[in-house]
Amino acid sequence: MASAWWPCLILALLSGLAASGFPRSPSRPLGKRSLPEGVVNGIEVYSTKISCKVTSRFAHNVVTTRAVNRADTAKEVSFDVELPKTAFITNFTLTIDGVTYPGNVKEKEVAKKQYEKAVSQGKTAGLVKASGRKLEKFTVSVNVAAGSKVTFELTYEELLKRHKGKYEMYLKVQPKQLVKHFEIEADIFEPQGISTLDAEASFITNDLLGSALTKSFSGRKGRVSFKPSMDQQRSCPTCTDSLLNGDFIITYDVNRESPANVQIVNGYFVHFFAPQGLPVVPKNVVFVIDVSGSMHGRKMEQTKDALLKILEDVKEDDYLNFILFSGDVTTWKDTLVQATPENIEEARTFVKNIDDQGMTNINDGLLRGISMLNKAREEHSVPERSTSIVIMLTDGDPNVGESRPEKIQENVRNAIGGKFPLYNLGFGNNLNYNFLESMALENHGLARRIYEDSDANLQLQGFYEEVANPLLTDVEVEYPENAIQDLTQSAYQHFYDGSEIVVAGRLLDEDMNNFKADVKGHGAINDLTFTEEVTPEKITLWSGAAQSTFSWLDTVTVTQDGLSVTINRKKNMVVSFGDGVTFVVVLHQVWKKHPVHQDFLGFYVVDSHRMSAQTHGLLGQFFHPFDFKVSDIHPGSDPTKPDATMVVKDHRLTVTRGSQKDYRKDASVGTKVACWFVHNNGQGLIDGVHSDYIVPNLF
């Protein structure tokens, strides 16, 4: 898939005459440079760092660049950061010679006048510019006084989405000069555990990447660090310009013991749902393609190349058709046809012969395709357990027939009637993308911009791959009534293979012990329901003032300073000290409808003989052998349980024969063990009395 589709971060620093188009200097041999290493037009960018902290798919990113003006006069520096459309800025600061100035939003004209006045006086000032309704581009121009240092820091956050089985963080790096300290650092924490983690860069060879990149993951934590030296940044061994100009991509996925995972923090929950291994639901696809005159040349050839590749991937159970619109509307077939080998070959011939002509009648093209899908469903000419999709591609605005965007949206919305999604692909920049996006979103689809580049055909193919494999349709996520509020979207027309459904909400009762979440959907063969039992009971590990919180739904191992803690999902927790004693805390789960008994924890010592002789406490005092003798066995009040006399610690006690369960080997059922029960709360057996061992709380 083309890089431009993914959430991206572009960090560009242009020094000197950047605002007036200062050109990037060509490669220069080291021997010919007249400025110190890493200085361009008097500006030295000595540090650039992108720090990413990801927790449960939520990324917190901080971009920090530090520069100093080594010239004798004021110089202007421009910073450009392009943010993901779904990201939001949470903080921006400029630090000038140690004094921090937080970002301040003002009207554009007022801000521009203040900036120009400061620049004319040779002072350091910043100007924030935004382009695009969703703040796609963030620009700061700073006039740096002679000898001054400036630090630019931007913080933004985003929820990472899963595509093709992986979460992806996309960073497009363009420092435009050698940077003494350049670093990309990502720390990932996923409660489900990380299953894969990788990183790659398009601008550097694998050999150089391997020496500058470190990546690792274990259990729930993963880390990626990219720290190229100045020599590794050079575009050639004797050059002073940087090769850091391209894509840096981090991908990962999580362990999935079950289709769903629910995490609870401070009375809020987030529900992740991504089943695997389900059969693909057959789909009925109508491609509505703009063949107007503006598509002439390269765009049309790339569109045809993409459609031919897509036809190779269409499954035989699918049904399809092509609608072409310019000033008029034409179709390949009058109705949807099955994707048999013969029909696919005929479709290839049709696509190869597509030609461009005329104007742009989006309204009639879409309505023809929608009508065809509706008719196929009404006449039962497509499989009952199939799903319908409209994919429309255009490079311009409607200019013939119904050309009012709001009226086209109304027509399309009424024709679809919420029955299937519409996906709009906008080719290039000469179109009303907001119109395409709005129309797609109100019909349960989405819009994508196809960039006019050499890989436009790959962008088209990549989008189709995302929607090519629906596993469920009409997906609904249900929670107990009167238990959840502030719920995000919980109904989806499709779940596609490799993606993920995310629902968040707030628990009405923060002390709620458990609740059930059901995910229902129509599969290729039958209707399916996935149930996740949610429990917010916490397991908190403290290290000084720092704490880590887990639940019995986790599988994780934490090791620190000789202490190892392993949580086995819904089973037990094992605590080990170095090579010494091991404790096991077993989660005993009882019948959910039992009128009296509830789930409980059992505390067991595996290697008690390794404990110090000075160990004490209610359990510790019995870790090492002590003398006792049982005699005078005789019938007790219960004929099945004889009594006896036990002599221990200079006390004569009456004890009763019985049995207890040992859960160390079988945590669910346990093993019966014969034992003697001591009466009166262990009086005479334990040191002191039982109340000596009761504390008001654990911490």
Automatic annotation (TrEMBL):
Residues 1-20 form the signal peptide. It comes from Panthera tigris altaica (Siberian tiger). It is found in: Secreted. Keywords: Glycoprotein, Protease inhibitor, Proteoglycan, Secreted, Serine protease inhibitor, Signal. Belongs to the ITIH family. GO terms for cellular component: extracellular region. The gene is ITIH3. Gene3D superfamilies: von Willebrand factor, type A domain. GO terms for molecular function: serine-type endopeptidase inhibitor activity. Residues 284-467 form the VWFA domain. SMART domains: VIT, VWA. May act as a carrier of hyaluronan in serum or as a binding protein between hyaluronan and other matrix protein, including those on cell surfaces in tissues to regulate the localization, synthesis and degradation of hyaluronan which are essential to cells undergoing biological processes. Residues 29-158 form the VIT domain. The keyword 4Fe-4S does not apply. Its main location: secreted. One of its GO terms (biological process) is hyaluronan metabolic process. The keyword tRNA-binding does not apply. This is Inter-alpha-trypsin inhibitor heavy chain H3. Pfam families: ITI_HC_C, VIT, VWA.
